Amino acid sequence: MLDTGVDDSLPELRGQVLEGKNFSHEPKGANVDTSGHGTDMAAVIAGTGRSGGIQGLAPGAKVLPVKTSSGHLGIGDATPAYLKAMRYAVKRGARVINLSETITSSLTDDARKRLQDGLDEINSSGAIIFAGVGNDGKSSNVAGYPSSLPGAVAVAAVNQSGTVSKFSTYGPQVALAAPGEGIPGHCQDGGGWCEQSGTSYATAIVSASAALIWSAHPKWTANQVLRVMMQTTSKPKGKVPSEYIGYGIVRPGQVLLDGKGDPGAADVNPLFPKYEPGKASAASPSSPPKPDRSPTTPNAQGDTPAASPAEGDGGDGNTLIYVGVGVGAVLALGGGGLAWARQRRRV
Q1: How far apart are alpha carbons 152 and 271 in whole angstroms?
Q2: Going by C-beta distance under 8 Å and a sequence separation of 6 or more, which residues neighbour residue 144?
Q3: 52 is in which domain, residue-wise?
Q4: Residue 202 DSSP SS3
Q5: What is the pTM of this model?
Q6: Of residues 118, 112, 168, 75, the one with CA closest to residue 291
Q7: Total Cβ atoms within 10 A of residue 228
Q8: pLDDT tens-digit readout, 257-299
Q9: CA distances from 269 to 126, 150, 223, 284 (A)
Q10: Count of alpha carbons within 13 Å of 274, Cβ hemisphere only?
């Protein structure tokens, strides 16, 4: 997990977190989290619920914390840290990589290439990376990085009715969606938990879903895991993929409980069928990404997107994710402050 580190002293995360590595400018290690963002993502993915803590979707999973930011204002080009972090995660044998952060500023060709190199190495290793699209849907709707690059599975957020969250960034890069509102996270004042929202939490839920499916089918490849996830979603109404929720809202219960989904070809990426790591390929699942834009306001929630909201499958679209897979509460991310000032944003 590439994030702000993980506080593994919390009851629900004891024994769930491996020794990681710090690639940020912060002197403290990957198992220290001064922001709390990475800790919340880890809890959503693998929290055990011990001592009244957060119950994650995949409590049998282990989290490898790879610190890429501190969660506080910083300066500089973040892409070298990302590249090192991606390579480290691959070297350590990570199979599902969660990236609940996005870069929303313009990137040089070299910086973009560094990110693409990292994604290529992840995919070449047989792993899969899920990246949040960001929380700018109500404002600038910036197509950030690396979620808009080939090889990254871009994740959007929906509310409890299965409709796209107003803040969720939208566009052709969106591949999958998951609940991203009313998710329990640790309160900033250090006591109890608070409901939070953002595509960060949606991304963590999708990552946990992949971990559950892969653990049940360990011989499947990353392509096969992704394919059945795409096949078993609660589909959007109208055009598929939707620019708001992509191929739909993930429903791991459809695979784990009902045995649905055809894994298909082991060596063909179902989202980027022409994607060959290390070679030029289409930049998004359906069309080129939007041009680079400068960073805008911090993540916040508000008005409806410019176009009509995405149509989630109204009924049980986002509820089946919780049925029979050990989730005790609706799980999402709260007010994401800027990290790597004016360049990288927590999502």
Answers
A1: 9
A2: 102, 103, 104, 133, 134, 136, 169, 345, 347
A3: 2-346
A4: helix
A5: 0.83
A6: 112
A7: 22
A8: 999 999 999 999 999 999 988 775 444 454 333 322 223 222 2
A9: 11, 10, 5, 13
A10: 8
Q: Domain holding 223: CATH number?
A: 3.40.50.200
Question: In the structure encoding, which two tokens stand for residue 154, read together?
Answer: 């871009």
- Phi, psi at 3, each rounded to 5°: -165, -150
What is the distance between the terminal CA atoms of the chain, rounded to a whole angstrom?
A: 14
Element housing 99 (H / E): strand 96-99
Rg (CA), the chain: 18
User: Which whole number is the average pLDDT over 120-129?
Assistant: 97
Catalytic residues: 3, 37, 200
Which residue do the tokens 């940020």 mark? 24
Tracing tokens 């996830």 back to the chain, one arrives at 229
Q: How far apart are CA 167 and CA 296, in angstroms?
A: 13
Measure CA 86 to chain center.
14
Q: Which amino acid is at 31?
A: N
- The better pLDDT of the pair 291, 255 is held by 255
> For 5-52, how does the pLDDT look when each residue is reduced to its tens digit (9 = 90+)?
999 999 999 999 999 999 998 888 999 998 999 999 999 999 999 999
> Higher pLDDT residue, 330 or 227?
227
Peptide bond just before 305 cis, omega within 30 deg: no
Phi/psi at 176 (5° precision): -140, 165
- Number of domains composing the chain: 1
